[in-house]
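REQUEST FORM: STRUCTURE PREDICTION
Request ID: SP-0412
Submitted by: Lab K.M.
Chain count: 1
Length (residues): 356
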Amino acid sequence: MSMVIPAPELAQRVASVLMACGSSPVEARIVADNLVLANLSGHDSHGVGMLPRYVDAVLEGGLKPNAGVRIVLDTGSLLTLDGQRGYGQVVGEQAMQLGIDRARQHGSCIMTLANAHHLGRIGHFAELAVAQGLVAIHFVNVLSRPVVAPHGGADGRFGTNPCCIGVPLAGQAPFVLDFATSRVAQGKMRVAHNEGRKVESGYLIDAQGRPTNDPGVVVVPQPGADGAGLFGALLTFGEHKGYGLAVACELLGGALTGGGTWHRPADSARTVLNGMLTILIDPAQLGTQAAFDAEARAFVDWIRQSPPAPGGDGVHLAGEPERATRLERARTGITIDDQTWAEIVEATARAKPPAT
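STATUS: Completed
RESULT:
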C-alpha cells in the first residue's frame, strides 16, 4: 500500500520535523525542499525517506543543526572547506556558492568539502553550477557503514561513492550525469525493501558473499552463526571499472579533502558523512566558449539522430528523465509507501533538539 502527497504538503511536514530537531526555519526549509526535490526527480532513495536517519543522526550528535561551512583555506581558485557536520543540503549549497563565485572570478575553482553530513543528490549541486554556465565535476565518498564490496571481494568495504558531471548546453537543458559507483544506490534498496520487492540479479551479495535478490541484506541485519547481525553488500557497476571509480572517489572525496576514508570495522551509527572534491570550469574564460557551444550542440544533435532500439523510446541525455519526472510528480504528487511513511511518523515522535 502507499499514499500520494502533494510536494508542498510533504515539504512542510518534513520541515516541521527538522525544526523539532533544532533547525532554524530557514535551514529546515532548505533541507526539506532538497529532499522533496529528490523525490520529485524520481530519486526516492535520496528523498524524504532519509528523514528518520537524519533524526537519529541528530540524536547521536553526529549531525549538527544550524552548522555552516567554514573556510579553512582560500587562495582564490583553490578552496578548502569544512562542513562542520552540518546538513549537507545546507553546507553543500554554501560551498557551491563560494566555488561558483571563485570560478566566475578566476575561470576555474578546485574546491574540497570535508565533514558534511549526507549531501543527498549530488546532481543538485551540478545543477547549481550549470545554471551559471559552468562545467562541474564532483567526486564524493561516504563515511558510514560500508555497503559496497570491492570487485573480487565478498563484503562491504566502502560506500556508494557517487560521481557527478554537469555540462551546460547552449540553448537547451544541461547534461547532468549523476550516479552511484555501486550498481544501484543504497537508498533504492531501502525503498525496495520497504515496498516488499525483490531486485534484479547482479546487484547484491548476502552476508556470506553469495548472490541474492533480497534488498533486505543491506537494510536490516541478517542472522549470523554466532547470533550477531550481519549485512550483505552491493556490487559496483561495470565490475572492475565501477570499482576503480569508487576507489577514485574515496581517494579524492575522502583522502584529498581531509575528511578521511573508511578503514575500520562497521558500526551501527546512523550518521552519514560525505567528503566532496568539486572542479568548476568557466568555458568563457577558458577561451573555448564558441567552439564548446557549437561542438556540444553538434554532438548532441548527432546522437539524438540514432534510431530507437527495438522496444525502446529513443536516445535520452543524462538529466532528461529527472526533469520529466519532476513535471509529472509536481502535477500528480509524490508516492510514499506505507513502511516509509510509518518510519517518518515514528521519527516525528523521536524528534528533539540535540543535547547541549
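NOTES: The first strand starts at residue 2 and ends at 5.
Reviewed by: T.R.
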